[in-house]
């Protein structure tokens, strides 16, 4: 049987166990499970890895619990600026957007760029014009409002501080998915609302191909979550692929080398989800936890938040 696999994440770092109520934990795990199952269903029915990762990320964007799409955090001026990327491991085609506003599902826009443009990366107003051309859905500003995100921003909006996602506990708010389909093709997708109170149109690693998102049929598919500046500097996603391609590392060895060794040495915190060309899955992180899930073939799904 040809292996097929999917793994998702809803951000590294978590609300601490002391602050996590049973009801909130159930809500997180339910939304993760729904996104995982939706992507897996596409794979199980013979669909493409690209469609599977788009679907899983879209559902996570639609949840107010995660810092992407509907649950995106507020910028310095009280707006929402979102980034996303998607990549096909078969053709190495990719689409990415940065700093877009009012786009209901930035991952859909990223996929439209992959499919309908000769470009890879668009930003701001131009990306929004492209979205209108291809009928990507927009939403009014209030669609992206959540009371929790507003409180986070209100607490720091008159300062020069920015926070990654949560005011007390570190929570790096990004969502993502990686998959291997029955045809042997890999894909990765990632989406984020960035940092609370971010200024100057800051962009993190999420939409940068090779840093936060990467897929190559010869090696693996990677979607990252963490302090983006470190992931950009370490070119994390591509570095893992290179360790597999040039050094002969297994997926797990490559992920552990980068996430648990190289990143840690210069202060990078976060994690990633990965799947290789054989269907192996890795979910490494060096933070206290990472909202995550995976399913290989038709085996039982795995959902986790904290270290085990």
What would your notes on this structure say?
With 308 residues, the chain is an alpha+beta fold. It has one domain (5-297): (Glycosyl)asparaginase (Glutamine Phosphoribosylpyrophosphate, subunit 1, domain 1, 4-Layer Sandwich). The chain is built from 8 helices and 12 strands. The strands form 2 sheets. The chain has an 8-stranded mixed beta sheet with strand order 4-3-2-6-5-1-11-12. A 4-stranded antiparallel beta sheet has the order 7-8-9-10. β2 (82-88) and β3 (94-100) form a beta hairpin. α1 (22-44) runs antiparallel to α2, α2 (49-62) packs antiparallel against α3 (106-116) and α7 crosses α8 (251-265). The protein is globular. Residues 165-170 have low confidence and may be disordered.
How many domains? 1
Task: Give the H and E element order.
Answer: EHHEEHEHHEEEEHHHEEEE
Quickly give the CATH architecture. Answer: 4-Layer Sandwich
Q: Note the main sheet.
A: 8 strands, mixed
What are the low-pLDDT stretches, counting only 5+ consecutive residues below 50?
165-170
Keywords:
single chain, 308 residues, alpha+beta, globular, four-stranded antiparallel beta sheet, Glutamine Phosphoribosylpyrophosphate, subunit 1, domain 1, eight-stranded mixed beta sheet
List the helices and strands and how they pair.
Blueprint: E1 5-12, H1 22-44, H2 49-62, E2 82-88, E3 94-100, H3 106-116, E4 121-123, H4 124-133, H5 147-156, E5 174-180, E6 186-192, E7 213-215, E8 220-226, H6 228-234, H7 236-247, H8 251-265, E9 270-276, E10 281-282, E11 289-296, E12 302-306
Parallel strand pairs: 3-4
Antiparallel strand pairs: 1-5, 1-11, 2-3, 2-6, 5-6, 7-8, 8-9, 9-10, 11-12
Helix pairs in contact: 1-2, 2-3, 7-8
């Amino acid at each position: 049987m040809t292996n097929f696999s999917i793994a998702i994440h809803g951000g590294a770092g978590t609300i601490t166990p002391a602050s996590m109520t049973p009801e909130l934990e159930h809500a997180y795990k339910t939304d993760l499970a729904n996104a995982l199952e939706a992507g897996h269903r596409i794979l199980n029915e013979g669909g493409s890895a690209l469609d599977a990762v788009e679907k899983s990320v879209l559902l996570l964007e639609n949840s107010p619990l995660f810092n992407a799409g509907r649950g995106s955090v507020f910028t310095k001026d009280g707006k929402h600026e979102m980034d996303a990327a998607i990549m096909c491991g078969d053709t190495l085609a990719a689409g990415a957007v940065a700093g877009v506003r009012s786009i209901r599902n930035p991952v859909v826009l990223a996929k439209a760029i992959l499919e309908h443009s000769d470009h890879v990366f668009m930003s701001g107003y131009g990306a929004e014009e492209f979205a209108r051309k291809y009928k990507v859905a927009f939403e009014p500003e209030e669609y992206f409002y959540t009371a929790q995100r507003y409180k986070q921003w209100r607490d720091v909006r008159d300062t020069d501080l920015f926070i990654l996602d949560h005011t007390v506990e570190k929570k790096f708010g990004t969502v993502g998915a990686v998959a291997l389909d029955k045809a042997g093709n890999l894909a990765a997708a990632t989406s984020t609302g960035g940092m609370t109170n971010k200024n100057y149109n800051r962009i993190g690693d999420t939409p940068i191909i090779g840093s936060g998102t990467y897929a190559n049929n010869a090696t693996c598919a990677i979607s990252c979550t963490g302090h983006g500046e470190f992931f950009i500097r370490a070119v994390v996603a591509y570095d893992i692929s290179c360790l597999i391609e040039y050094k002969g590392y297994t997926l797990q060895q490559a992920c552990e080398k980068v996430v648990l060794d190289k990143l840690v040495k210069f202060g990078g915190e976060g994690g990633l989800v990965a799947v290789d060309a054989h269907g192996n899955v890795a979910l490494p992180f060096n933070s206290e936890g990472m909202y995550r899930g995976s399913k290989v073939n038709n085996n039982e799904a795995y959902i986790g938040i904290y270290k085990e």
